């Protein structure tokens, strides 16, 4: 065994040199060639930021280049040894030619383990550190964006442009803007526009999702629906999804992915759907409680201590099946303010009590929509086609019960209001999102695992082809070995796409692993037929 070990060490040393030089060179070329900055798209970052970002991104580049470097090192080293007839000498000495593949097997195993660690732990950590690099200079970044001709896009068609923007010296994460123009467009159509004397912009982080909160002061604003408005303080809250890196599933490490795969309802996209389901269930519970109160004596009272509304109707009432909205005919609404000193009486041919559309129960508002309205204001009789009254205080006990419902209880449909169509629809969307997140996580984990394992077979294949296409044809061997590599990558990408769909999830995982089996089969055939010949 002394001679094979000497040969293993000799081959491994030569192959290690090529592997080290190739991996370093390819990593630096890929990083410095612009791939890093095309991925993160931070054109306004400072030179110091770019350097720190580059240092953080090198592990990601290494995860991509290490398999290729290992493949190239095995092909070149074994090709040169074959060209020098050293393998012929080993065969003539009675040494099993297949035992000389031990250094290639060790290199492939090391490369696979390093790649697995990098893509599962180092790269996700790098993205976390990247956010830490960018965040302290966020004020400067926002200032640069505001000074661009198109201004700062804030999502949902909203955009602000400033004549002068500066970073607050006492708070680097805050930008003070003066002389501001605000525009809101949708599909090229103006919805609103205006000016503000001063705007304060602050960067925040909401569970890995970058956001900016904007407060405009002394706003003159024209809204297509509301008309001309003079607002002393106007807040905005928006996400900058296109501008900053937000925490995504692919940026999570392996342990976090396993945890979320077991409990996908904890991922923020599923949480958002569960909160919409909570709104549907809670709104139905609140409307059921109000309906029961009205059925007792034809009276519903809304009182928050400052304003009191009393809605009376002795006519027949009904419910809208979809969401439980209460519809009452011949309604009288009495409004008391200032401890009962101010009173207004509204009569309506029809009044509907409903929950306004919102994204969560926290943001929901209970209102009354009255039609064919008549009331007096300052002695004048006023008639209107419609009037919105509210927001009204919600029953506190019912609200607490709705918030106390766990996500599992909401998804399982154990609530009494579960049969309303809006609740059923929201529950279906939440369950679909939960299953979709679980499928995505499974696809990501299988993607990382198959990519890492593929290195084992590809390096052995490169070594075998290097022996067959020896000498000047070693580059040909490297090129041929790239075909299975491309097949593996295509299989992983296509399989991941299929695995994200409910109907093709299992088929997608099978496609991802098919590349591994194909490369393994080619390895067996190469070593058994070509090398032996």
Largest sheet: 7 strands, antiparallel
How many domains make up the coordinates? Answer: 3
- Tell me the series of helices and strands, N- to C-terminal: HHHHHEEEEEEHHEEEEEEEHHHHH
Annotation field: number of helices: 12
End-to-end distance, in Å?
25 Å
Name the shape in a single word: elongated
Secondary-structure-derived class: alpha+beta
Give the helix proportion (percent range): 40-55%
Topology, number of strands: 13
- The Rg value, from CA coordinates, equals 33 Å
| Average pLDDT | 82
Structure overview:
The protein contains twelve helices and 13 strands. The longest helix has 48 residues, at 421-468. The protein has three domains: 2-135 and 437-531, no CATH class; 155-239, no CATH class; 279-405, no CATH class. The two termini are 25 Å apart. Helix 2 packs antiparallel against helix 4 (102-134), helix 2 packs across helix 11 and helix 10 runs antiparallel to helix 11 (474-499). By secondary structure, the chain is an alpha+beta fold. Residues 39-43 have low confidence and may be disordered.
Question: What is shown here, in short?
Answer:
This protein folds into three domains: 2-135 and 437-531, no CATH class; 155-239, no CATH class; 279-405, no CATH class. It has twelve helices and 13 strands. The chain has helices at residues 2-40, 47-83, 86-92, 102-134, 138-146, 254-262, 268-297, 396-404, 407-412, 421-468, 474-499, 505-531, and strands at residues 152-153, 158-167, 174-186, 189-206, 209-223, 227-239, 299-303, 307-312, 317-319, 326-337, 342-355, 366-377, 380-392.
